[in-house]
Task: structure prediction
Amino acid sequence: MRKQLLSTLALVGVMALTATGCSTDTADNDDVAAPGGGGGGGGDEVITVGFAQTGSESGWRSANTESMNEAFSEENGFELVFNSADNDPAAQIAAVRSFINQGVDAIVIAPIVEDGWDDVLREAQDAEIPVILEDRTVTASDDLYASWVGLDFELEGQKAGEWAAEEFTEPTNMVVLEGTTGSAPANDRAAGFDAAIEGTPIEKIDSQSGDFTRDGGKSVMEGFLQKHGADGIDLVYAHNDDMGLGAIEAIEAAGAVPGEDIKIITIDAVRDGMQALVDGKINYIVECNPLLGETAAELVKAVLAGEEVEKTTIVEDQAFDQAAAEEALPDRTY
Ligand code: AHR
Result:
């Protein structure tokens, strides 16, 4: 009975998601149980997990999605119900609500923005569905979710700022390509970087969101170049590799040399970014590790088994200059 009701709700949920234009996929497998295992995690039962991904904005995001798909595989005992919200916060919250209605065993969220999560997290808690955050955080109380595995975005920004502070000892005009407005990495990477360059001759002359995308980075950089001229910009701080790669295209189109006339610092260290660093078009990259799937899957199993888990798991990041990138690139898996 409960299963029939949940199946109906699942169908309504999927229809609602289709109507809002976001995508939801389940593993292509007829043998797995329908959502609504009601607690899962024990014995050989398939654990149904709703995963609310941000979208597919960057190379980092593709690597993160792949890591999640691998970890939450059928072989590992999961049925993953995947939703990509195309970076629309309202669509992402609707997806989480749909997972609750489907009666999944657990929900994993990579929150697009930090704010606005209290209500839906409370709804999940009332439905006794544990929530694990991966990658980004929220401003809601941590009583409302079981655990978070992610990165120290502020430290990433700080490392990038420390490199800039050492490198630029003369007056320097910097422009910033910000990540998605209201997202934890955009907020924290700005804060960490700004604190590290305080008191240095680096001046932030412009700052705008490129939404973590290559196209966004390119068009925002085109605007900066039009406004300030290539000669008026010494340094670009991009909150991710993809926006930095878009900025390279804009700088080259403006007849300047990225990495020389205009220096570039980015965050992520995905293969394309690392290649640009090896090629001398990017000058420094701070890593943001996207391989969070395995830890997220372990957390889901532990929480469903009633085990005590850490509230926060921070995955460590490295930083790369050109020589370090040359060494690391051949073995880079993403
Ligand atoms: O939340 C992690 C950030 O999101 C990555 O730095 C960026 O590339 C992605 O889109």
Notes: Residues 38-151+290-316 form a domain with the Rossmann fold fold (CATH 3.40.50.2300). Residues 57-58, 60-61, 135-136, 185, 212, 240, 242, 267-268, 288 surround alpha-L-arabinofuranose (CB under 6 Å). The first strand starts at residue 23 and ends at 26.
